[in-house]
Amino acid sequence: MPVHALLRRSVELPGRGRLAACRAGDAAVAAVRRAVSAAPLPWPYEGQASVEVEGIGCLGTVGEQRPVPIASITKVMTAYVVLREHPLGPRDSGPMVRVDRAAARESGSTTESVVPVEEGQEFSLRQLLAYMLVPSGNNIARLLARWTAGSEAAFVRRMNESAAELGMTSSRFTGSCGMDIGNTSTAVDLLLLARTVMRDEVFRTIVATPSVPLQGDRGEARTTNRLLGRHGVAGLKTGTSTPAGGNVLWAAYKEADGSRRLVLGAVLAQRSGRSPVRARAAVWAHSRRLVEAVQSAPLEELAALGPTAPTPPRAVCAYRVSG
Q1: In degrees rounded to 5, what are phi and psi of residue 311?
Q2: pTM here?
Q3: Catalytic residue among 10, 50, 113, 136
């Protein structure tokens, strides 16, 4: 579909969307206007979002870039810190990590996303990274934090230090898995992180994995990323909770002019404060439309958006479930 047609679609919200915007008041209407003025893409009418294309730059950033809870997208920073401390080659499994009592106990939780493990089991670092990033195991994130830094508190300090080094000035981390609403960021900040971590081949391979086998006869655990494998999507991470709403940090590849370009997007704070079911539905719908729009638009039209798309002054992109 041509970009100008997508512009019309972004203005012509469905009846249910118009009703929601009216109920939300002037803030929602202003968000619609900001989205339309940023670039002719079908931006969400609430929360915040940003999209960039490798070699082109930022296609637009909409919504107030204030820190919001990001739920399990936090695990992308956890993986980044772990891989900095313990880098893996493309075919490396890494050191073996022993499951401690806390991780085993937490695996029985019915209120958060976990992966079943038993005390004393040993897994390779690569396998645990997969358990954390694919089915979004909170207990595995905490285990890796303790194993890497000795305690979760020490690991969180490293997370915040890494965020500062990356220029993520609007981000703050208070835990390794995202259950804590103190884990906050913005769409623009998360694209800084995504751009960096997607350079790691091990990370890229893991987030592109649709499922991982569990130990014993427990079958497999599937990815939380419903876009994976569709419209060129090859990652990254989801995050949903009642306070955070629906959040997706996605990566896709666009084939154009004989080259393969990386597209990164972040859609945050969809239906915050609502049920996780409604939040997931909203963030998937908005993210899918953005991915489809970028994939269907000719490269020259996307390139024309870059210089005109409004971005925050510091944006480098101008060049109770948590899963």
Answers
A1: -130, 150
A2: 0.84
A3: 136
Q: Which of 10, 50, 72, 170 is catalytic?
A: 72
Q: Identify the pLDDT of residue 107.
A: 94
CB 106, CB 114: distance < 8 Å: yes
Does 136 participate in catalysis according to the annotation? yes
pLDDT tens track for 222-234: 999 999 999 999 9
d(CA 318, CA 48): 16
pLDDT grade, residue 7 (50/70/90)?
A: very low
Instruction: Give the DSSP letter string of 8-61.
Output: HHHHS--HHHHHHHHHH-HHHHHHHHHHHHH-SS---SSSEEEEEETTTEEEEE
Contact present, 102 and 114 (Cβ < 8 Å): no
Q: Catalytic: which of 75, 170, 171, 254?
A: 75
Residue 259 binned pLDDT confidence (cut-offs 50, 70, 90): confident
Question: What is the spatial distance between Cα 283 and Cα 172, in angstroms, rounded to a whole number?
Answer: 22
Instruction: Give catalytic status of residue 75 as yes or no.
Output: yes
